[in-house]
Design a protein that fits this description.
An 8-stranded parallel β-sheet has the order 7-6-5-4-3-2-1-8. The protein is built from 9 helices and 8 strands. Helix 6 links the parallel strand 5 and strand 6. 42% of the residues lie in helices and 17% in strands. Bound molecules: pyridoxal-5'-phosphate.
């Protein structure tokens, strides 16, 4: 688990460098440690090193792993959310970054309201055109979902999330991030109080930061390759 701490500090330095290169202040970009497919001990090694924001992509795995998390550990759901699992999200997760359906939003809001909890949400957009990816396609669909979520009392829409195409090439990846940045700026221009643009992973966070990301989700570069599937 010492390696996790070493890796975390390497990523922190990498973020600082990327911010410097992009002419941005490093406190504009939050680092999320994506602990999916890694055991609790790995997440706790990062926690001991000062990491507080974590991401998981499956509800059941997160429930099994984070049975009694420290009070200041912040957990976000970043994976595709099946509506039948939506009722388990409020309470365990303080935010969901992968909202892409009206029906799921309604279910999440109902559950959060029943529990007296507030839930921050990001809408996930598919900016790569890859059919294998989740997320909404098209701005019309985005603004429809935005209006719906804005009408719900226990959900707070804070911005947008995307995954770049898995091509490893700078141009299409940056195009994807730039498209999300553009939608994010439109939301802000409409007067929404958005503050989170979640984009960038282990292999592409430098480009995401250049394209305006405010939150990067890093798994492999911190925890290594997946331990279990
Ligand atoms: C796994 C995952 C990440 C982290 O990916 P790495 O390449 O391991 O850094 C980020 N975002 C989402 C939505 C993920 O599922």
């Amino acid at each position: 688990m010492e390696q996790v701490k070493v890796n975390l500090n390497i990523v922190r330095n990498g973020l600082k460098e990327a911010c410097h290169k992009a002419g941005r202040s490093s406190d504009e970009v939050r680092l999320m440690a994506v602990s999916k497919n890694h055991p609790l001990e790995a997440a706790m090694a990062a926690y001991e090193e000062g990491q507080r924001l974590f991401g998981e992509n499956r509800v059941q795995e997160a429930l099994d792993k984070f049975t009694n998390p420290p009070g200041d550990l912040e957990l976000h759901m970043i994976g595709h959310l099946q509506s039948k699992k939506a009722s388990k999200v409020p309470g365990l997760f303080s935010a969901i970054q992968s909202l892409d359906k009206i029906k799921t939003a309604t279910l999440l809001d109902k559950k959060a309201t029943d529990l007296g909890l507030q839930l921050n949400v990001l809408i996930e957009m598919n900016t790569s055109g890859e059919a294998s990816k989740n997320g909404l396609e098209g701005e019309d669909n985005l603004w429809k979902l935005v209006e719906h979520v804005n009408g719900l009392s226990s959900l707070h829409l804070k911005g947008l999330m995307t995954l770049a195409p898995f091509v490893g090439e700078e141009v299409p990846i940056r195009r994807s991030f730039a498209a999300l940045y553009d939608m994010y700026q439109k939301g802000i221009a409409k007067g929404y109080d958005w503050d989170t643009l979640s984009m960038g992973m282990s292999g592409d966070y430098q480009w995401a930061i250049q394209e305006g990301s405010t939150l990067v989700r890093v798994g492999t570069a911190i925890f290594g390759h997946r331990v279990y599937a």
